[in-house]
């Protein structure tokens, strides 16, 4: 089924989402954000029927079935609850919630309302990930013993007032980009038994970190940074070979290497990441449940809670 959408937020990620939705012909009925002039321009650019000055006005529109939230991290939970109480399904940008307590509150409300709530983690929805799981399960590289994944992007001169570094807005590299390596690793790990984590801080939030997860059978070495850039590749290392996943956050290709013999797999299109995400979301609404993604998201926020505990990083709105 094809849903009609409303969008909260007009920042960079909202532009990418709306652009993809426009190209795919998805019906976008409304958009709301703080700056009404920008909101009107956003609506005009993407063919959205109505720009709203207030979120509650948009949520009152009975045409809108689903809401996409792309605002600063500190506002996600309030907007999620507001949308669910208005009877709308919700797709929220990561992090859906700052901590597990907030996450559980949102998940419980969605269940009570009989609505779908999902976190916008693209790795869950890329077709190549299904093929990757198939290859891993075939045993071609045998048991995975080490996972490596980095999401490091040099964002230039760091301004303490920026969204990225403002603790009042839920800033920091872990929540913004470090969640992706954790997301990828968690897909191939059992329950985490031990976590090691170090970070560099600026303005009270992390700007670079190195994390090691241990589930008793394998390790995951993960890093995130606003200070440097690295290829966004991930590696699954088994006792018989390795798999390199290119641009793992929205991949379309991986390479299996066993004894120097390499085989490349290309599945899907990285440029269609948001369309895959929305297609799955539409299906979840139609059948009344997801494929376990929300529970997987909960595991990710639990891990991030433990990491921040080690760093003594608490946000002022927690």
TrEMBL record:
Residues 130-243 form the GFO/IDH/MocA-like oxidoreductase domain. Gene3D superfamilies: Dihydrodipicolinate Reductase, domain 2, NAD(P)-binding Rossmann-like Domain. Pfam families: GFO_IDH_MocA (PF01408), GFO_IDH_MocA_C3 (PF22725). GO terms for molecular function: nucleotide binding; oxidoreductase activity. It comes from the Bacteria. SUPFAM superfamilies: Glyceraldehyde-3-phosphate dehydrogenase-like, C-terminal domain, NAD(P)-binding Rossmann-fold domains. This is Dehydrogenase related protein.
